[in-house]
Amino acid sequence: MRINVIKLKTSRMIIGGNFMDNSTIRKELIRLTWPLFIQTILFMVLGMVDTLMLSRYSDNAVAAVSVSNQVLNFVQILFAVISVGTSILCAQYKGAQDEKNVGIVASVSLLFNAVMGIIFSVVLVVCSRSIFKLMNVPQEIMEYAVQYLVIVGAGSVFQALLNTTGAIVTSTGHTKVAMNISVTVNVINIVGNYILIFGAFGFPAMGVRGAAISTTLSKAIMSVFAIILLVVKINKNISIKALVPFPFEILKKILKIGIPSAGENLAYNISQLVITSIISTMGSLMLTARAYIGNITMFTIAFSSAIGQGTSILVGNKIGAKQKDDAYKACMYSLKVGIVTSLIVSSICAVFSGYLVGIFTTNKEILSVAAIVLACDIILEIGRVFNVIIIDSLKAAGDVKFPVFWGVISMWGISVVLSYVLGLKMNLALLGVWIACAADEWFRGILMLVRWKKGKWRKMKLI
Questions:
Q1: Which of 30, 133, 215, 313 is the most buried (most CB within 10 A)?
Q2: Domain hosting residue 439, numbered range
Q3: Position 13 confidence tier, pLDDT thresholds 50, 70, 90
Q4: What is the pTM of this model?
């Protein structure tokens, strides 16, 4: 298979000079964000294809892999402790044109996450059955779940390395390379799934075990390739020598940024589980409606996420280059772009909700619920844009604790509580949940905008 990421052009990240011209911001934002958007969309679409393949094999197989992925997603949050901190530090050092420290940060993060990955590989292989017993996984899917988690869990070290290399590559401005790596992993996985799940080209049909082997092999191949690419093409300062003597101060900085961010992700995931349990008491129809609506809204979220990540890189570079006025302007310009984009995409989804949700179901009640909820989602998504872009910018500037603290408060105090009150007590069902989530997004969004405009992040220093 030909992998295009071998041909790597030198990053055109604008380190010096000012971003006072909006056209310059626009060009850099487009250059950084379009690969991130495509990466996100393809990841989502390929994930659907993955699930579709397993569904052709067995419904229990789909359920088993879904349960296993809940465990694996939790482990990924722990890997994010390092990758988030790495991303922000690399962006700032890149802006300061300090390639040596970019290499040191990358070397430390690769070593740390590799060790973490090995530890979790052992834990998941040894404890998989015990973990599922604690989760009260039904016996009919237990064996499938254990098969999948043991094999994919054994390759946790490869996922840890992919997370880290992705953070380094993206934060140094090579978003197209990051896209190619991510897409290649997923394409190899899909092809491998087809061959090993169903037994194509003379291979035995292995079902769930085949899906697990395919997933692990694709990550193993690309993690090795990504590390070689990093060392040879992107930053030749990445080496074992950079770890002698061990740079504990760099590790401390990575953890200082990463631990609060990972805590926020964990709080969000747990709050979503609670909200899901609230929706489940409304009946299976509402759960199904939420799933279908989620498939539609992911396109709006993908735009917001890509713009947020691109802005984070721009802001981090400008902070590193001591150009804080330009960092401020880049964030505010991106916010305007994000609001307009989100408004257009979410409005299209609402107007054509019948056609879009109709792809998945013909149930009139679900279609009716979806039409109302997707109309409400327009308001929610605009609030989300504020959060995604400004929070990413605050973190890139080193202001990590404020958005994390208020994020946890708002997720639980507004989103979870109001979902229960509006959804169940006031009988607004799924619409009530969406209103609650919109209130959470807008509360945090306004709070973060005020924080950004006050400029306390200007006094913070990471490097």
A1: 313
A2: 258-463
A3: very low
A4: 0.83
